[in-house]
Amino acid sequence: MFNDPYINFHTHHPSGSPDVLEIENLNFGQQSGGKTPFYSAGLHPWFLAGIDLPEAESWLRRHLASSHCLALGEAGLDKLTTAPQALQSAAFQRCIRLAAETGKPLVIHCVRAFNEVLQLLEKAPAKPVSIFHGFDKHPQTAAMLLDAGCFLSFGAALFRANSPAADTLRQMPADRFFLETDDKDLNISTVYERAAEIRGVDTENIRRQVAQNFRNLPGVGVSLLGL
Ligand SMILES: [Zn+2]
Predict the structure, then answer these.
(1) From ligand 1's centre to the CA of 146, what distance in Å?
(2) Which of 20, 70, 123, 178 is paired with 205 by a 20 to 30 Å CA distance?
(3) What domains, with CATH codes, occur in the chain?
C-alpha cells in the first residue's frame, strides 16, 4: 500500500515518469505518443466539425476493445464551443451508450451544461460510471453531481485563487475524487501536494486515497495496472 503510484487521471501530455500511472487522452483520430500504455478515447465537443459519427463510433469501439483503454472520454457538452448543440448531444449520447455497453467509465468534459449532461445520463437506457474532469465549480454543483453517483477530477483550478474548486475538494467525500493535469504544464505530484494542503492531510494519504478510488472504479481492470 505504501507504494501507491501517483495517478494522473486525465492528461494530454503524459510525462512517461515511472512512478505515475497516466491516462493519456486521445481525441477522435489521435494516436498515442507512446509514453504511457494507458489511455482514454473520446469524442471531444471541441472537435466535432465535419465528423462522421458512425466512423467515429467504429474508432471508439476498436479502442474500447483494448484492455489498455481504461475509459471513454473525454466527451460531453460545451456551451461555449462552436459545434452545434444538436451535434454535441448526438455525439455524447453515442458515447454514453458505448461506455455503458462496454462497462468502461465515461470521462466528461462539461462547460455550462451540467443539467443537460445529467439529463442525458439519466435518460440513457444504462448509465455508465461518470467522472466530470477539470472540475472547477462550487460545492452546490458538485453535490448535484455526487448525488447522481458521479465522480469529480481536479487539476489546475485548485491553484486559482478565484476558483471554487478548492472549496469543493475540501468539503467533498474522500472516495469520489481524482486528480489530473489535463492539457496544463503541471507536474501531477504538485497537484497531489496542493490537494493534500487543501484537505489538511499529507500527500501519502492523497496517494492512497486516489489509488483506492481508482481500484474501486467499476470497469477499470486493476489486475492489469498492478495496483
Ligand atoms: Zn482534457
Answers:
(1) 21
(2) 70
(3) 6-219 (3.20.20.140)
Cα 24 to middle of ligand 1, angstroms: 9
Residue 36 near residue 24 (C-beta atoms within 8 A): yes
pTM: 0.96
pLDDT tens column, 112-156:
999 999 999 999 999 999 999 999 999 999 999 999 999 999 999
Residues 6 or more apart in contact with residue 89 via CB below 8 angstroms = 77, 116, 120
21-56 burial, b at 16+ Cβ within 10 Å, e below that, comes to bbbbbbbbebeeeeebbbbbbbbbbbbbeebeeeeb
CA of 182 to the centre of ligand 1 (A): 5
Report how far ligand 1's centroid is from the alpha carbon of 20 (Å).
Answer: 18
Cell 492531510, residue located:
201
